[in-house]
Amino acid sequence: MKPTILYVEDDLEIGEWTNQFLKDKGYEVDWRTSGENALHEAGSYSLIILDVMLPGLDGFTVGQRLKKNSPHIPVLMLSARSSIDDKLQGLHFADDYLTKPFHPDELAARIEILLRRYEKEEEECITLHHIHMYPKHNRIVDSRTNDELTLTGKQFHIFRYMIQNANQILTKEQIYEGVWGDTYIEGDKTLQVHIRYLREKIEIDPSSPLIIETIRGIGYRVRR
User: 143 in the Ramachandran plot: left (φ > 0), alpha (ψ -120 to 50) or beta?
Assistant: First the structure.
């Protein structure tokens, strides 16, 4: 199946040339001249190429909204603005930033790198109910909203440890020693507090958890 690209560029001359070049490379391309249209279409594409200088909503604004709504889709910014401040602003949310004028072979190479990176990440996605976890990139996404969830380092390590030992009943001692690398002291509430906060972030209803089960008198279990 051919990768599909959403290309947003209002300059007709550049747009015509780039659109044809991408099609000649074997991509399916939908070219749009405004960011407003792109906001409603982005979810089904393999990659988004976005110009910064657009009528109405500028590319930075559009890109940030697209990335929030579809964090699993790579975004490549194109711009004649080459200052370090502009690049840093773009790279705050985008996956790559290419300044105009650019060589077509460089554009093609950057597209291929982004597609390979995200395809590999998608292969390593672990799905638990509404949660998508990408262990290699330390990312957790809520599939209902496509929002990336922010966990503390310890919360992420606990969750990853439990997923690595999915379908097993893990004692509090096992989890504590596996995550903290230290001996669990009976009565220590540290693990329970972390799991409570973790559930508040990943469970639909933390009071009736579907992802992290409590096994009364023993510990916890994550089912896959």
Answer: alpha
